[in-house]
Amino acid sequence: METTLRGVGVSHGVAIGEVRHMGTAVLEPPAKQIPAEDVEREKGRARQAVEAVAADLTARGNLAGGEAQAVLEAQALMAQDPELRADVERRISVGSTAERAVYDAFATYRDLLAGAGEYLAGRIADLDDVRNRIVARLLGVPMPGVPDSEQPYVLIARDLAPADTALLDPSLVLGFVTEEGGPTSHSAILARALGVPAVVALRGATELAEGMVIAVDGSSGEVFPEPSTEHAERMRASAAKRRAEMAASAGPGATSDGHKVPLLANIGGPEDVPAAVEAGAEGVGLFRTEFLFLDDSATAPSEEKQLQAYRSVLEAFPEGRVVVRVLDAGADKPLDFLTPGDEPNPALGVRGLRTLLEHPEVLHTQLSALARASEGLPVHLEVMAPMVADRTDAKAFADACRAAGLHAKAGAMVEIPSAALRARSILQEVEFLSLGTNDLAQYTFAADRQVGAVSQWQDPWHPALLDLVALSAEAARAESKSCGVCGEAASDPLLACVLTGLGVTSLSMTAASLPYVRTTLATYTLAQCERAAAAARAADTASEARGAAHAVLSGE
Ligand code: PEP
Ligand code: MG
After folding, report:
1. pTM for this entry
2. Ligand 1 probe mutation, 294, 414, 438, 443, most atoms within 8 A of CB
3. β-strand 198-200 against 173-178: which pairing, if any?
4. Among 141-155, 359-373, 432-446, 462-476, which stretch is predicted with the lowest mean pLDDT?
5. Which domains does the chain have, with CATH numbers?
């Protein structure tokens, strides 16, 4: 009997391969006393670990070549430094374990470097990495950071920071599974952008044995340790069939009876545009501009730099619609020069539009850059504000757009329940709504989107969230304005049909999800989507809602 582990599927597809663990930061080894007869053995262990790490760094340098080789060779030399070695041995002689002696000797060396001028202080991270590698080897735990593997593997981690995800090589990482993290955490969003199957919030993920073969289904969230050959074949075959269907899918988004639902892409900058175009996006539904600001969190990028980035995105969709979200700083995306550092509860603090209204010059520069970037282009530019709470917020944003000479539709994101409840009043000030279901779930269920332990509450299938979506869509229809979804909810194919049934007018998602949503939407009529939506709203829990919608659409 095969075991099935269940987490939350956040990036479609199937991955079958060997487990490799992401090494965690090395913990401080306990300060234990060793008996005198163990001293020589401990010294031998320390010497061996140092040599092995130095050899490994040199070998990796030879493979990498160029600048990376110079850095890795310098690290190998640090590991073999004679003074450090003498210090380690001295500490072992007075009763330290090998790992503790390495840890303490490096700490002394580290303090010396820190006080020795800017250049040497800059080498501290390299020194820490060498120390972590030696200590990890002595403790017999995985090396810190992304695994060094030349064979493709399935990556297992407690959680992945955006910085880790950026280091992953998509040609080696078949997929990934994390113990923590919710479906709307920014690391899950970045994983989807990488286009590899992924499952998050899987209890026990970090206990899967290194080297064990597992099969990951990024759609259902299931993980099968040591699947039988037949099972693995079946999964591969159905994934290949699905991929072929996807490759054949093209054209604008619509239900089977022709009700149009434009399918747009979520992007973080010009580098995401080619994938969006290739997936057939009809435009951009969410341009997360904060990625432009995160490069250097000490100052805002200049108007010129912003103008170039915006223009290259706008030019890629000549007749299309491009919805740019103004800077959403704060909470999980803090910026040194804008975000207060002392908030007890940053997600409930000064973030999004609140930050911009406190720093009107930052908003004005961004809106002016957008106005200039769109000059002379046929594109349909729309600009929206994150974290709008009510009509006063919406008016402040619309006024700022006018003051910057922007000839674009101004819109409000619905991310706070108050905005959904007062959608009609907000629409007196702006031209469109866009539902940010990630934050809307966070604030509706009081569940921090970065905390894996409450990830069951970040489920956009919950009928309470569907009610807020319905309220917003109904308000937009009454005002003859549009109401799209740009949160991760739009990338779940079944939920996309339900959102359509609730009256949402466009769906925006990571490029990799577009073909899945397009093919599923094209399978059902608008009336079927409406019935599925009604059934989901009549349920009491997220899983009942999902089951009810599934039953309606599959005709069970
Ligand atoms: C959202 O909250 O749903 C959203 C689209 O914005 P972000 O994920 O960038 O906070
Ligand atoms: Mg948001």
Report:
1. 0.70
2. 438
3. parallel
4. 141-155
5. 5-23+145-230 (3.50.30.10), 36-139 (1.10.274.10), 254-554 (3.20.20.60)
